[in-house]
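Quick question about two entries, pasted in order.
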Amino acid sequence: MENPQSHQVLARHGKSFYWASFFLGSQLADRAARLYEFCRFVDDLADGDLPYRQESLEDIRACLEDPNSENDGLTIPELSNFIDLAQQNNIPLSAAKELLDGMLLDQQPTQLTTERELLRYCHAVAGTVGLMMCRVLECTQPRAQAFAIDLGIAMQLTNISRDVLEDAKMGRRYLPSDWFESVVSVDDIANAESDCLQPVTQAIDRLLQLSETYYASALMGIRLLPFRSRLSIAIALRVYRQIGWVLRRQDLAWWKGRVMVGKTEKARLSLRSLSELLPVHVPAHTSALHQHLEGLAGVQHH
């Protein structure tokens, strides 16, 4: 294990991904853990309670603009390790910068208005991670990028559906306001007001339906990955997707807090993922899935 700290971060904070990483082989698992460590670092910084977190995120973004500068931010080990990883694996820093833009957006009270805003946010904080992971896993198929973005977006939609209450308590509502017939404020959700229980439940149902569209696309694109990493990503997809199914089993009772996927379910989903190793023709990517993402990292013009 080349970077034990990276693996510890993954094991502690990314249980679904940690499970999937066992199927990657040591070298690829090490790279994936190093990428996860950086993403986790900026995410924790964005969600933490440090007084200067916005300035810190801006410093990190400035370092990504010019990684060869003598910027003080480069003394942050997680950042310097990531820049090394990016240079070794040809990771586009445009994706990392957009990730930071997403984290900076979260420093303001967040109340999204439209589905377009939602999908662009999901691309910033997770579609970009899919793009970077493509490089880490040595994927040489250019068209795999679009499917990797879809997997990131699908997972972020799952995240949002699971964390509606937690996010509201931090002043964030990612459910678009135009999905509601009447005003549903962040405070209403944070306090689980009785008149917002049903509208929010319906919005989460819509969120999960939307995620299924992106998961279905990503599942097709997995065949474009190198054989070695295909099973691991399929497992990560199925285990993360299962969070939505567990939510549904619990009648989308979002006010009861976070749900988890159990170890037995993870093992069953891992066995199911073996089917992704079979060779299957991968059709062209559905361009409509990216109609709201024009101009963002890795998104093709249509």
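Here is the second entry:
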Amino acid sequence: MASGLAPAQMAKGAGQDLVLTDPLTGLGNRRRFFHKVDRLIAERADDPAPFAIAIFDLDGFKPINDLFGRAAGDEILQQVAMRLRAAMDEHSTVTRIGADEFGVLYPMVFSEAAAAGRARVLIEILSAPYHVGDRTARLSASAGCSLFYSEEDTTELLLSKAETALYQAKRSGRGAVAVYTREMEEAAKTVTRMEQALRRAVAAGDVEPHFQPIVDLPSRGVVGFEALARWTDRDLGAVSPSVFIPIAEERGFIGQLSQLVLRKAAEAALDWPEHLHLSFNLSPSQLVDHNTVQQILSILERTGFDPRRLEVELTETGLMNDPASAERIIADLRSAGIGISLDDFGTGQSSLGRLRDFRFDKLKIDRAFVSSLLEDRASEQIVRAILAMAAGLGMDVVAEGIEYEAQADRLIEFGCAGGQGFLFGRPRDAEGTLAYMRDVIPGPMG
């Protein structure tokens, strides 16, 4: 009788293993991770000795997947799994809990410092080059950790805390590690409250464009304005764009925010003299959204704003997320007559090769170089080099962050034609911009 049951029991065990196994990497899957943590919590219920979990998320995996192809992406995930499995000690377990997320259970890690140290070691291991055929790919990882301290810590709660820490780590930059703290939870709650308020503001149309002048440096004549999003909440007060723009980007509604600001900016710009252009920033996520071009053109059509008067600004970092998608979007925008500007040039993750791969009408020299132009020889040489390169490529240049006459004079001396900064005007709302133009632009308005 025992011999008759053994095959059935073996089959049942094998079937359960399949249910708990990730077919691509051979690691345990999310269900196995939960089972392992649940069991460890039960074992330590009477004497809750600490243990740690960590979530590792691959930084920049999607662009690599897009550039090298799905098969290559799968091969990289298999190599990641092999490295992580080889790095585990006899007590620890690694599982694949998401598309490019891996969960690690550390039963014998008892402190936050030890958890962070283990995570940094794995990040170092994951940062080594990956070989895909005859090509080499590089990527890094971020990690969020949490520790079990009492029976109140369920598996779901531990995972939620680790995800909160991971979110904090990714906001700090690539290859970072964060361990969950109560302060982190409070910060996350603050961000969530701000997100909810911002969503309401976008739905109600309460985010406004302000406009900063862009000038021809030699003549100081205004040639256009850059639209900048501004938000003042009834309870929060004026919220800096450096705070609310990343929240909209990370929480997935930057597209709605951008469309609102562009619509209002285009409506305001209809009252400007026709020779002035409107400059508008696109976020990195909009460069991977295939609806971006249609959304922009639809707004221009509804407002009656001439596409040839619009210039969109892109960042080097945004281009790196998905170069193929960005290239298509740039080509479609240009075919509609919209100008393309590369913003913050010299500070992003891109290379000079991007200037060959993409066609830009304008470069904007980052304010970091302009602010140190007068006292730092390296900044001076970089600005000179950018201007010479742009001239050779037939691109216009605007220097950002000009605050002093001496900076403007030096830029003119180097051959820079365009400028932007507080020297020429701070951002103003639509009404204030019209008043500014009446003061600085001769002749009738409109």
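Reply: The chain has two domains: 16-180, 192-440. The first strand starts at residue 51 and ends at 59. Hope that helps.
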